[in-house]
């Protein structure tokens, strides 16, 4: 980590990327839950195309975020936080980062398995990760949906509850660290 690691607040870039991912995920869950069920023959559907394109964008922004995180580190923790809270936040944050890759990559694998085009708004296409209907890989869709609907959403829920706990119950400034224009 370089000297920025001891900064007392998140950079504007880190905050922007954090809230961009929040916005993209809201759109992504809406598309995921409202698009037609993807069966053996996939009908052409704008919602499915949008689900794939926004998923690709989330993976890309998550990579940029990790690069920013790796080069800038995290700001020094708020004063006076109990060690268990610091540990918990750290574990939760790294799990969130991990599932921001695991979930879309499984979606991408399943789309390849189903022989769907994995294209970003029709501008470019990502390579196939699995051969069409490759034996033994059909589970990728179920696990993608399961992890998105329960694990990622559960982690986000805990993260939001933690942020609200800091703001309303502990009355510290942890939430403000991630809000635009505050410190
Ligand atoms: C963080 C990013 C993503 C999230 C949160 C997400 C979320 C979801 C959700 C909620 C569903 C519906 C599950 C249900 O039926 O209840 C779903 C289904 C699906 N998604 Fe994603 N998705 C993401 C990225 C992607 C990407 C990048 C692709 C493809 C390149 C993709 C392909 C699919 C496919 C093929 C299905 C249908 C799976 C099946 O029913 O077998 N997803 N996704
Ligand atoms: C309304 C929703 C959300 C709120 C209020 C919120 C709030 C916050 C706050 C206050 C922090 C800073 C914590 C600290 O200073 O220690 C933070 C960091 C973080 N948030 Fe969120 N968040 C939300 C949604 C999300 C979502 C949807 C994700 C990703 C799936 C996410 C991923 C992260 C990560 C990875 C960090 C750690 C940043 C780092 O140190 O690299 N957050 N969030």
Structure write-up:
This protein is an all-alpha fold and 183 residues long. Helix content is 62%, strand content 2%. It is built from four helices and two strands; from the N terminus they run αααββα. The protein has helices spanning 12-34, 46-72, 83-113, 139-170; strands at residues 119-120, 124-125. The protein has a two-stranded antiparallel sheet. The radius of gyration is 19 Å and the shape is elongated. The two termini are 22 Å apart. Mean pLDDT is 91; it is low at 1-5. It binds protoporphyrin IX containing FE (HEM) (2 copies). Residues 18, 21-22, 25, 69, 74, 89, 93, 96-97, 100, 156, 159-160, 163, 174-175, 177-178 line the site of one protoporphyrin IX containing FE.
Give the number of DSSP strands: 2
Task: State the helix count.
Answer: 4
Ions, cofactors and other ligands present here are: protoporphyrin IX containing FE
The run of helices and strands is: HHHEEH
User: Which structural category fits the helices and strands?
Assistant: mainly alpha
Portion in strands: under 5%
Residue-averaged pLDDT, rounded? 91
Q: Measure the end-to-end span.
A: 22 Å
Strand order of the largest sheet: 1-2
Shape designation: elongated
> What is the makeup of the main sheet?
2 strands, antiparallel
Query: Which range best describes the helical content: under 10%, 10-25%, 25-40%, 40-55%, 55-70% or over 70%?
Result: 55-70%
Report Rg.
19 Å
Low-confidence runs of at least 5 consecutive residues: 1-5
């Amino acid at each position: 980590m370089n000297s920025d690691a001891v900064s007392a607040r998140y950079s504007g870039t880190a905050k922007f990327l954090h809230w961009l991912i929040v916005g993209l995920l809201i759109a992504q869950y809406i598309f995921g839950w409202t698009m037609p069920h993807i069966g053996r023959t996939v009908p052409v559907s704008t919602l499915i195309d949008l689900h794939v394109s926004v998923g690709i964008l989330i993976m890309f922004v998550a990579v940029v975020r990790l690069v920013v995180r790796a080069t800038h580190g995290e700001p020094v923790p708020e004063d006076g936080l109990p060690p268990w809270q610091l540990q918990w936040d750290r574990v939760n944050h790294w799990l969130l980062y991990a599932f921001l890759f695991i979930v879309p990559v499984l979606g991408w694998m399943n789309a390849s398995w189903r022989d769907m085009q994995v294209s970003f708004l029709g501008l470019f296409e990502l390579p196939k990760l699995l051969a069409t209907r490759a034996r033994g890989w059909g589970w990728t869709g179920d696990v993608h949906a399961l992890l998105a609907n329960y694990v990622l959403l559960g982690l986000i829920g805990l993260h939001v509850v933690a942020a609200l706990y800091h703001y309303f119950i502990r009355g510290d400034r942890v939430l403000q660290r991630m809000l635009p224009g505050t410190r």
